[in-house]
Amino acid sequence: MEKGEWIKKKSAASLYPAQVETALIQLTAGWPASGIPLPDVIQNFPLGENSLLHLFALSNICAARIVQNPELLLWLSQPEICSQGRDQVDMSNELHRMAGDDIAANNFRALRRWKNKEMTRIALRELANAAAFEETTAELSQLAEICVREAFAHYNSKFRESFGSPAAGFAILALGKLGGRELNHSSDVDLIFLYSEEGELSPRVSYHQWFNRLAEKMLETFAVRDPEGALFRVDLRLRPEGGAGPLVRSLESMENYYAGFGETWERIALIKARRIAGDRELAYEFLRQHQPFIYPRSPTPDLLDEIAKIKRRIERDVARSDALERDVKLGRGGIREIEFVVQTLQFIHGGRHVFLQETGTLNALRALARLELIPDKEVVDLDRAYRFLRTVEHRLQIEAEQQTHTLPRDRAVLDRLAQSLAFDSITDFNAILKKNMENVRSVFDRVISSAPTETASPDLKSFKDEKSATRSLGDLLKPTSASHVAPRTKQVFAKLRPALLDQIAETADPDATLNQFVRFVEAYGLRGLLFELLASNPTLLELVIKTFDRSRFAGDLLIRRPQLLEEITRDKSFNQPRSIAEHFARLESFGSSPTNLDPIRAYWQRQTLRIMIRDVLDVAEASVIFEELSELAEACLTFTNKLLGGDNLTIVAMGKFGGRELSYGADLDLLFVGEDTRAAQNLVTAMTQASAEGTIASLDARLRPDGEKGPLVAPLAAYESYYRERAQLWEIHALTRARLISGPLQDAYFETVQKIWHDVGAQPDLFEKIDNMLERIRRERGSGSGFLDFKTGTGGMIEAEFLVQALQMRSGTWETNWQRALTRLREQNMISAADASNAAKSYELLRRTEAALRRFENKNVSALPALPDEQEKLAKRLGYKDVDLFAKEYRAARETIRGLYQRYIKPG
Question: What are phi and psi of 436, to 5 degrees?
Answer without folding.
Answer: -65, -45
